[in-house]
Design a protein that fits this description.
Blueprint (H helix, E strand, L loop, with lengths): L3 E2 L1 H5 L3 E7 L16 E10 L5 E14 L6 E6 L2 E7 L2 H10 L4 E4 L4 E2 H12 L9 H24 L15
Parallel strand pairs: 6-7
Antiparallel strand pairs: 1-8, 2-3, 3-4, 4-5, 4-6
């Protein structure tokens, strides 16, 4: 995809939509289980309440991530809408970044590669440590942790270092 967005794109309230394969993105393909999946995108140009050029980035679809509890694939649905203000120079960038809390601010004195914006949006949308909602997954972890705790406690009684952990305090001479 060789499309670019500009401040004029935003001011003219243009819209770009389409689909893209995650495998087209070098960084993002490592973050998902199946990078061949296609996701949808919509980029809307416009102005914010103070007349500043902005984009609304939105990705749609489902990607599979690895649950960090069970290490099994889990679905993750995309759908976040992210407002992005397009600063024309460094002064605007710094000022707007201080003023605005509900939008990202990027320097757009040159045309911005749509591909890079969308890849960044995907990466920022993903949870840092994904955990599935499967109750069995959580229960399996609890059992594993509980069993691990019991094994550690029984090992304390046999270990000469158990004194350091508050275990067996009997000393022999």
């Amino acid at each position: 995809m060789n499309q670019f967005v500009t401040r004029k794109f935003a001011a003219d309230r243009q819209v770009a939509t389409g689909t893209v394969r995650v495998s087209d993105w070098e960084r993002a393909k490592e973050a998902v289980v199946d990078p061949s999946v296609e996701i949808g995108y919509r980029v809307e140009g416009g102005l914010d309440g103070q007349g500043r050029p902005m984009l609304i980035l939105q990705l749609s679809g489902t990607v599979e991530l690895t649950c960090q509890r069970s290490l099994h694939p889990m679905p993750f649905t995309l759908g976040r809408r992210t407002p992005v203000l397009l600063a024309g120079n460094q002064r605007e960038l710094e000022a707007w970044d201080q003023e605005v809390e509900d939008a990202e601010v990027v320097l757009a004195k040159e045309p911005l590669a749509l591909d890079a914006l969308l890849e960044d949006e995907l990466l920022l949308s993903l949870p840092f440590s994904p955990l599935c909602d499967d109750p069995e997954c959580a229960e399996t972890l609890r059992r594993a942790t509980g069993d691990g705790q019991a094994a550690a406690e029984s090992a304390d009684h046999a270990s000469p270092f158990s004194v350091l952990r508050g275990g067996n305090t009997k000393q022999s001479h």
